Amino acid sequence: MNEQTLLKTEEVKITSHRAIFRGKTFALNNITSVETHRVPPNNLGPGIVCLIGIVLFFTGIAMLLGGVGEPEKMFQGGSSLFVGILIFVASIYMFRTSTPTYFVRLTTNAGQNKAFGSKDKKPVDEIVIALNKAIALR
């Protein structure tokens, strides 16, 4: 049977005999299953930024309350409070804009492979559909 191309993009080529992901080739005969795998975003960075903002916010409040009558402490407290709020808002933005990564996960005789990854789910789903069609054709 002739090799039939089912999907071809800049980074991926799926044919009836093989799958090529960014230069790495897998024979379809060795692939037993294909699935979309979702890895949640790493929110450690935004979490740390959020904690820094909260600490600065409460430090600013403490300085404002403890510095009544002392202009320098009032200014430092107000500045700390303002910067804490800004950093906290930035961390909320970081949380909201962090996105998961989607992978094409292949199961072969040798185990599981994350063959292709993207922040966009659509190309990963297209690859999984093409691979399932290719597996059905063999």
Provide a concise account of the structure shown.
With 138 residues, the protein is α+β, with helices and mostly antiparallel strands. It contains 3 helices and 7 strands; from the N terminus they run E-E-E-E-E-H-H-E-E-H.
How would you describe the overall organization of this protein?
With 138 residues, the protein is of the alpha+beta class. It folds into two domains: 5-38 and 101-137, Roll (PH-domain like), CATH 2.30.29; 44-97. It has three helices and seven strands. The chain has helices at 44-66, 71-97, 121-137, and strands spanning 5-8, 12-15, 18-21, 24-27, 31-39, 101-108, 111-118. The chain has a four-stranded antiparallel beta sheet with strand order 1-2-3-4, covered by helices on one side. Strand 1 (5-8) and strand 2 (12-15) form a beta hairpin. Helix 1 (44-66) runs antiparallel to helix 2. The longest helix is centred in the middle third of the chain and has 27 residues, at 71-97. The chain starts with a strand and ends with a helix.
Give the SSE string. Answer: EEEEEHHEEH
Architecture per CATH nomenclature, i.e. the level-2 architecture of the largest domain:
Roll
N- to C-terminal distance: 9 Å
Helix content: 40-55%
CATH homology superfamily name of the largest domain: Pleckstrin-homology domain (PH domain)/Phosphotyrosine-binding domain (PTB)
Number of domains: 2
Low-confidence runs (pLDDT<50, min 5 residues)? Answer: none
**pLDDT averaged residue by residue:** 91
CATH class of the largest domain: Mainly Beta
